[in-house]
Amino acid sequence: MPKKKKEKEEFLKNELIEKSLSPHPLSFMKLQSLCLFLIIWGVIIGWLVNFSEYKTLFIGNEWFILLAWGLVLLLVGVITSLILIRWTIFFLYLAVFVGAIALMLWQNWLNKDAAPVFIPFFSVAVSIIGFLIIEVYRRSHQYIITNLRIILLSGFITKTELSIRYDKITVFGKQSVLGQIFNFGTIIPITPSGLGLGSDQTLAAGGLMLGGKRAKLLGLAGGGKEVQTPRSRSSFELHGVHPYREIKNLIEKLVQESVPTAYHQEQVAFQKQQVDLQKQMRDLLKVQTKETGKKPISNAVSSDELDEDEEPEEVIEPEENDVQKQMKELLKKQSELRETEKIKEEFEEEDVKEKS
Amino acid sequence: MVDYSIDIVIFAPLAPILGVLLFWFIQLLFIQSEKYLLEKIRPKHEPLCRFTNFLGILFQTICHALGYTITKSGISDFFISVDYGRVSPKKERTGIFQWIANAFLFIGPFFIPAFLLLISLIFLKVEGFELLIPSHIIGSEYSFGGQITIFGTSLYNFSEKFFGFLSNIDLLHPGHFGFLLLLIFLGMGIRPSYIGEKKHEKIDMLYDLKNIWLLISFKPLYIIILFIMAYLFFHLTILINQFWYVELFSIFGWLSIISITAIIIADILIILIKTTDEIPGKSRFLPYITVPSSYIIMRIFFFYFPSDFTNIASLLIMILSTIIVTFLLLKYKTKKFNTKTDMKPLRGKDAKEKKGKRRISKKRTY
Fold first, then answer.
1. Residue B174 is nearest to which of A47, A177, A183, comparing CB atoms?
2. Is the domain covering A8-22+143-198+227-258 a CATH 2.30.29 domain?
3. Is B87 part of a structural domain of the chain?
């Protein structure tokens, strides 16, 4: 159970917490795998330059070790960035590489044959720091599911808070292979305003150069296509929540309860009719009491319900208080009137028939 | 020139086939043992079982897709999840093409993971892939006995080198360590079907065999054609005096040996998990800490006191120390090895009261 960061006062009236969640430790595997690769590559390079049969290639070539390590790192960074369309991965690895060079130059380790030891340790140390940052980032997320809304809290320096009501959302869920194995998944609440939606863009462009050596004309044609897909940041979605199915079912249930269904709409219409009828009856009562010269009784209070100390302001006879009886009488009168009207109409119709 | 006899014409081509079938059947038995062990640990290790299911289904789906690709049926739909895999062909093909695609689905998962491991072994420069012809069979190498001897020698030679490599595996070598991980993971996935969550959905060895039998009995003509092709291939190799036929089946034999070894190592790991589950508290993690720590300590020791048996000795001490730690934990943390019950508490207060009045035999309390 995650630590409850949200104060009690911040909740709404009658708001009950159904679940308080945080992302699964393996839900940020995309980020963790970057650190994992750094560790693996650090160990491999350490083995290559210190213990393998190829270690003679690296003896006396401190720069060669550093460059080999850095180039592979950058190559992997470029490939991953291209696949995931996220250049931060490349810049992250670039920062690690530049950091290693800067540290080695600053401490003058390049001239002391320290690279074979420094690079593996540096890789592992950076990876451990990376893992710790990811863990802190993961722990900064908290998702509270209440009976009225979903509250998404995140950020360890800048705090963000998002509250989503159930009647406004469409629920989208996704589970990676790791999620299927460890039973966690991401639930994205998509709102009509577009929260929870990302876009995939494809662009195509072509160029044409006309003319020979002197005249150079360049024509360009381009096109683009955008597809909106459910995608969000971990701050705006229930990222890697465990157990996935249970949470998803709970949210679906709460959404279902908040959205008026056809049955609910029928019920509301029926209640409205009832209220209208009661209003009409009250008006009729008012008219009747005016005719008889008595005050209308709005609240019929029995003597049992009154406190012993308090005396009733006006003692009213139970026969006079009986609103239902009065109503019945009114209805009877109404029906009698209708019946007499019907009889009159029938007689008139018969007369018309006879004449014809 | 080879003297043709009934042995060479009819029985000799069957020798490597029978050899492969034997090893494949052993493999099936080991798969069954792995399934049994996985079922035992399932309640406490659901994610691990789901992971092994995923591996099994992954290979199954890949094999099915491979079958459709080879038969040029194309793939229109490829779906894989932890407990379900589906491959649909672009165009439905019948006859021999459908049969081959199904053969890939049912038989492929037994050999594809092992094939990946075989490729890894080649990269790790493990020897033992050459075909040796024993001198005593020269002259009768194309007979049934000769063929089975060559097949057996080939498998023996490979096994010797493969187990030599495994016993001398250097876990501080990234390639060797990666191979061991692959061996364990693929070992958990070498099975054509997954463990069902419910008992009635359990898919066992008989289910797999039934599927293969259905495949054979569906079109027996195809099996006959396959046999005729095998015979033709065998006799063709005799004409050019080569051993390609037995070499081909030897590869299947190697794959079976790799599979069986991978399953055995996976089984050992599952047994360790199952055993440590019985240990209460956090001390159950002690055997898992012992595995790497004992190995690293031994390697550091041998770094300062070099020996020719560094790798094998480190491995042995690692295995032994893990077994001892687990045994000690089971002995002192659980009642697993308690063969006799302490009778004193059973006597209760009454016995103590009567002690002064009546003589009670030490051997018999009641």
1. A47
2. yes
3. yes
Least CB–CB distance from B82: residue in A44, A47, A181: A181
* Test mutation, B46, B52, B82, B177, chain A, max A CBs within 10 A: B82
C-alpha distances (whole Å) from B237 to each of A73, B61, B134, B231, B241 are 50, 35, 18, 10, 6
B341: in domain = no
pLDDT band at A289 (very low <50, low <70, confident <90, very high): confident
Q: In what order do the strands lie in the sheet with A170-174?
A: A170-174, A185-190, A238-241
B51 CB within 8 Å of a chain A CB: yes
Residue B346 domain-assigned (yes or no): no
Residue B234 in contact with partner chain A when CB distance is under 8 A: no
Helices (H) and strands (E) in chain A, counts: 9, 9
pLDDT, mean over chain A? 81
Last residue of a domain, one of B230, B251, B276: B276
Closest CA to A228 of A255, A191, A263: A191
User: Total domain count for chain B?
Assistant: 2
A75 vs A101, A123, B85, CA distance in Å?
17, 16, 34
Q: Does residue B156 sit within a domain? A: yes
Claim to verify: residue B81 and residue B35 sit in the same structural domain: yes
Residue ranges making up the domain that contains B72: 6-276
Nearest residue of chain A to residue B51 (CA atoms): A181
B82:A51 CB<8 A: no
Structure confidence by residue, pLDDT tens digits, B247-278: 889 999 999 999 999 999 999 999 999 999 98
Is the minimum CB–CB distance between B84 and chain A shorter than 8 Å?
no
**Four-residue CA torsion sign, A31, A34, A40, A42:** negative
Q: What is the C-alpha to C-alpha distance for residues B51 and B184, in angstroms, rounded to an integer? A: 12
Q: Note the pTM of the prediction, 2 decimals.
A: 0.74
- Do B66 and B137 lie in one domain? The reply is yes
Residues B223 and B299 in one domain: no
